[in-house]
Amino acid sequence: MITLPLNSESVMDQMVTPQSGNVLMARSVLRISAPDTSDENYLVSSPWIDEGSTDGPNKNVHRDIQLDLDPKPVVRPLALDISKQNFRVKALQRWTGHVERVMADSFIAIVSDLTNPSNPDEEVELDIEDVPLGDRALITMGSVFYWSMVYRDTKSGQREKSESIRFARQPRLTEDVVEEIYHEADAITAILESA
Amino acid sequence: MVGSFNPTIFQPRWLGSLGLIRAEDAENSTIAIIQAQVADFQTDWFRLQVLQNRLLLQSIDATHYGPLKDLAAGMLALLSHTPVSRMAMTRWFHYKMETAEEWHEYGHKLAPKELWFPLIEGPGLRSMMMQGKRKGVPDGNLFIKVEPSLLVQPGLFVEVTEDFVKWPDPDAEDAKWVPGRLEKHWDDVMKYAEKVAHDLLETLARK
């Protein structure tokens, strides 16, 4: 038996609800995601039933399962309009990394393999040019980034291998918060010095 | 996340100005609506919908799971006084079956029909949800849902959700607990979900 995983590593080239929502235009989606809509209708395009059943495809089925469950899961998926994308993405390998040293045109980083976590960490040198312009200001010692190799399958049947780097973004600290951190550090220093 | 939110705050420009998303992401986002009751917009890699009692952030590209966590944690770190009472992390999988027979077989294994034949005609499994705990994570509630896939046919849809409630003081109203809890559990939940879906499929294939 072979199953072909089409998990969330693939971007489907259509309007996609992960599952339990109607496949709708974005404007309509708001309706199904409104609060207290645990009884929303959703589309079952191919019922999982015995063959020979008279139940037809694409029939709206009232969702009435597990209503006695308490608590219910919080997440109710929304539709994602990726219709503007004319390709499908399949992740081949993913890493997280942190920058060790920044040079003129490149930087040294330690990367951990997320696809095969048993692989040991590796030191790599990456070109700053490979980092999108919007993220280059974030390349500093210690900064964290996500690096992935993907296949992009276009509508015309072309398959391209590409890589993407995205740096982790943290909220900028306000002056108050920085002040608070300094105060805390001073307090800890004082305790240590008095011991 | 479930809590009490002010949707009008959540605008692409706001996230861009704070450096939580790239300026290009903010500029090229598609805004469905931003009003007092709801904010809803989408970029190339995530969709954010905020209602007055609910915030939902999602992506269908696994290469963006890390940035998605950073964005959620970043927003709630900035809005640390926002009341948030529950938070859940979910991952979805769609598996294509080779044949319809195999697909039906999996359905029968999950929910044997003998019990149902005397009661209804043509019984079929629409949806099954199991609730439990991930080992070693007593503060999380786990939900695993299995359904026929709507994306791939014949196919199986598996949804794994872990749900966390604010503790130790469930009445204290703030979001300070969210970034830490995301940091602590995100990677484990993502990996665990993958393992659950994979193992479930393997078991069904063997059984």
Element layout with pairings:
The complex is a heterodimer of chains A (195) and B (207).
Chain A: E1 4-5, E2 15-16, H1 26-32, E3 41-44, E4 59-62, E5 80-81, E6 87-102, E7 106-113, E8 122-127, E9 144-154, E10 159-167, H2 175-194
Antiparallel strand pairs in A: 2-5, 3-4, 6-7, 6-9, 7-8, 9-10
Chain B: E1 2-3, H1 12-17, H2 23-27, E2 30-34, E3 38-42, E4 47-51, E5 54-58, H3 65-78, E6 84-96, H4 100-110, E7 128-132, E8 140-148, E9 155-165, H5 177-206
Antiparallel strand pairs in B: 1-6, 2-3, 3-4, 4-5, 6-9, 7-8, 8-9
Helix pairs in contact in B: 3-5
Can you tell me about this structure?
The complex is a heterodimer of chains A (195) and B (207). With 195 residues, chain A is α+β, with helices and mostly antiparallel strands. Chain A has two helices and ten strands; from the N terminus they run E-E-H-E-E-E-E-E-E-E-E-H. In chain A, the strands form three sheets. A five-stranded antiparallel beta sheet of chain A has the order 8-7-6-9-10, with no helix packed on it. In chain A, a hairpin with a 3-residue loop joins strand 6 and strand 7 (106-113). Mean pLDDT of chain A is 67; it is low at 1-16 and 20-71. Chain B has two domains: 1-79; 84-207. Chain B contains five helices and nine strands; from the N terminus they run βααββββαβαβββα. In chain B, the strands form two sheets. A five-stranded antiparallel beta sheet of chain B has the order 1-6-9-8-7. A four-stranded antiparallel beta sheet of chain B has the order 2-3-4-5, with no helix packed on it. The longest helix of chain B is centred in the last third of the chain and has 30 residues, at 177-206. The model of chain B has no long low-confidence stretch (mean pLDDT 90). Chains A and B meet through strand 1, helix 1, strand 5, strand 6 and strand 9 of A and helix 2, strand 2, strand 3, strand 4 and strand 5 of B. Strand 1 of chain A pairs antiparallel with strand 6 of chain B, so a sheet runs across the interface.
